[in-house]
Every structure is written in structure tokens, then in C-alpha cells.
Amino acid sequence: MANLFTDRLLIHVEDIDEQHRRIFEIVEEFYSECMNGKNKDRILEIFRVLKGSLEEHFKSEEDYMVTYSYPEYEVHKERHNIFMLKLQALDSAFKGGFIPFTKLMEANEFFAEGFVTHISDIDSRLGEFLRDKL
Ligand SMILES: [Fe+2]
Ligand SMILES: [Fe+2]
């Protein structure tokens, strides 16, 4: 898995684009650590970093939406909530130190595809809205 983040995913809001780029870097790090499969603690550590970064990132977008009275705020926030619930479920699955390989693959697929889809379908619309406000 390499270069998940491409110009196609830019929403042209500088700090949001930078957060997306950074999150994909962590996803790629997570993926290669999973593939390497040797260091369970490191896998969990990266997973937690990823979860924290996503939490912060969603908060940034939600703050923008509230500040500029974005009409699709509720729908967008709901998508973030669903994302976080899924992360929470994965986090619980990883608790106790036993990490099934299938769960790791599920996590990777979720991060890569789920996040790409979210950005191109949902965040891009927010980007368009914010472009003439910022
Ligand atoms: Fe979003
Ligand atoms: Fe986003």
C-alpha cells in the first residue's frame, strides 16, 4: 500500500488537506507494520495514534461546519460518528493483546477504502462550501 493520498483527494482547505495527508501517512505505516507482523505493541501503538488523529481531525471539520453554519452538518457528523464507532469496535477487538490477522486486514481495508470514500464523497462537498468562506 503506497501513496493513498493523491491530488485527487485535495479539498483545497489547507489545514484539512494537511490532516488528511498526515492520516494517510499513519495508515501506510500501520499497514506496513501489520505486513511485517513482528511487533504487536508497535501495531497497537500506531492504531492508537491513528484513532487519536482521526478524532482530532473530525473535530476540526466539525468546528468549521459549526462556525460557518454548514447545511449538511448533521449528515456529515453522523458519518464521522459511524467511523468512530467502527474504530471503537476494532479497538475493543485488539484489547487483551490478541490481534487476529483477519481483524488487522479488516482495519486496513476500512482505513484505506473508508477514508478515501469519505474524503471524495463527503469532505469534498464541505471543501467546496468552505472555499468562498475562508
Ligand atoms: Fe469528514
Ligand atoms: Fe476529513
From TrEMBL:
Residues 13-127 form the Hemerythrin-like domain. Pfam families: Hemerythrin (PF01814). Keywords: Iron, Metal-binding. It comes from the Bacteria. InterPro entries: Haemerythrin_Fe_BS (IPR016131), Hemerythrin (IPR050669), Hemerythrin-like (IPR012312), Hemerythrin-like_sf (IPR035938), Hemerythrin_metal-bd (IPR012827). The keyword Iron applies. Belongs to the hemerythrin family. This is Hemerythrin family protein. It comes from Clostridium tanneri.
